[in-house]
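This protein record is not my work; I was only asked to verify it. Take the sequence as given and treat only the tokens as open to question. I have pasted the whole thing underneath without changing anything:
***
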Amino acid sequence: MTTDVMTRPAVLILLGPPGAGKGTQARMLEDEFGYVQLSTGDLLRAAVAAGTPAGLAAKAVMEAGQLVSDEIVINILRDRLAEPDCAKGVILDGFPRTTVQAEALDDLLGETGQKINAAISLEVDDAAMVERISGRYTCAGCGEGYHDSFKQPAKAGTCDKCGGTEMKRRADDNAETVASRLEAYHAQTAPLIAYYGGKGVLKSTNAMGGIDDIARDMAAIVTTATS
């Protein structure tokens, strides 16, 4: 007996620059729809730890100081998609990054009769993103997050949560680096926007609003794309 294509596990792709909230939104979609978030980094680490053939191939390449090939990543993803927890669907975060990877992903999904239900672009304002990311800092003791403009501790220099007085910032959370990362993202992702737009699966949402508002928009997109 054949299974109708629409009952195949859903496949969602999240597109958005660093700091756009992809991770946060992916976790909320996981909770609401029962999908599994898959990031390239996590996939590689898990495959290496498990000692799968693809994982061993990736380990050898990484130990040689080289970049893991698209073929190896696709093989690791193929193994992961076959695991039981992916039966409802997956959310791909950080993959594909190029049209070559997108085409390879299409080929992989074609093997199982799956398809991309939606490639969701989290749209941001670059200037606002520079302020959002470059203003971030955390308590070195407990990890509580703060921001120069949006969330300062009640007592300057003292963590509201644990009372710690040592704060830290990520070295790459400065305006120049953030602006450079955004520029690189747009250059890299523009072809993907065109690719998925041409396939009729590209959706977009304003990622500059509140987390819950964005989550509602994302849930509506997913519901429509998977129904």
Notes: The mean pLDDT is 91. The beta strands are 10-15, 36-39, 89-93, 118-123, 136-139, 145-147, 167-168, 202-206. The chain is about 50% helix and 15% strand. The helical segments are 22-33, 40-50, 53-63, 70-81, 99-112, 126-134, 175-198, 211-226.
